Amino acid sequence: MSDPQHEQPAQLEPMPDDWRRALAVVAHPDDLEYGCSAAVAAWTDAGREVAYVLATRGEAGIDTLEPARCGPLREREQRASAAVVGVSEVEFLDHEDGVVQYGPALRRDIAAAVRRHRPELLITLNHRDTWGGVAWNTPDHVAVGRATLDAAGDAGNRWIFPDLLDQGLQPWDGVRWVAVAGSSSPTHAVDAGPGLDRAVASLLEHRTYIEALTKEDPESYARALLTGYARAAGERFGGRPAVAFEVFSR
Ligand SMILES: [Zn+2]
Which CATH code for domain 8-249? Predict the structure, then answer.
C-alpha cells in the first residue's frame, strides 16, 4: 500500500497562454518581485501586455524611514522595477499600508482597475491566512488577494458599484483566470528560466527596502532568493525553474 505522505506531489500544469492582457493587483511595492516577475518578463517578451496595480505605496515597510518619505521612494523603486520586466503602467490605489481593509471599498477600486485594463488574466498574491504550515501571512496580502478574486466578478456586473458606470467604466466580464502567486496549493507554473536574470534585476530596484532588510550584498541576496524559489517550484515542473500559481478559472 502506498503511503500518501511519501507520494510524489502532482506535477503543475503549464499556465494557460491564450490571452493578451494581464493585470497584476497586489498590496505592496516588491510583492510581485519576490517570486513572480520572471513570469512577467517572459510574458512581455512574448508581446503580452501586463500592468501593475498596487493597493498601497508600501509606506510602512521600512522601520528606519517615516511613511511620508518612504511612500514616494518606494513608488519610484516600484516603477523602475516594473520597467525592468517590460511593464510601463503602474498604478497606486492609495490604501493605507499595513491596515488595508477587505471590503466593498477595496473591491470597488480593484473592479474599477479591471474595467480600465480589461485583462483576461488577473494576477495577485497569496490570499490565504498562511504561506503554508505556520508561516502567517500579512493582513494586507489576504485582503488584497481576496478582493482581487472577488473583483473578477464584480467588474463584470453592472449593478455592483453602479457609480463606476457614471465614470464611463463599462462592465468587463472577460477575466478568465485569477492566478495567485505565493500560494501553498499551486496548480500551474511558468518557466522561470528566460526571465530569471531580469527578475533579479527587478527585485534589486527595491534597493532601499533590501538594504534595510539584510546586511547581505543585495545582488547575492536577490539571486539566491529567486533561484531558490524557482528551483523549489521546478521540482513539480519537470525540474525546470518555475514560477508557480494557484489558478482559479472563471
Ligand atoms: Zn507585501
Answer: 3.40.50.10320
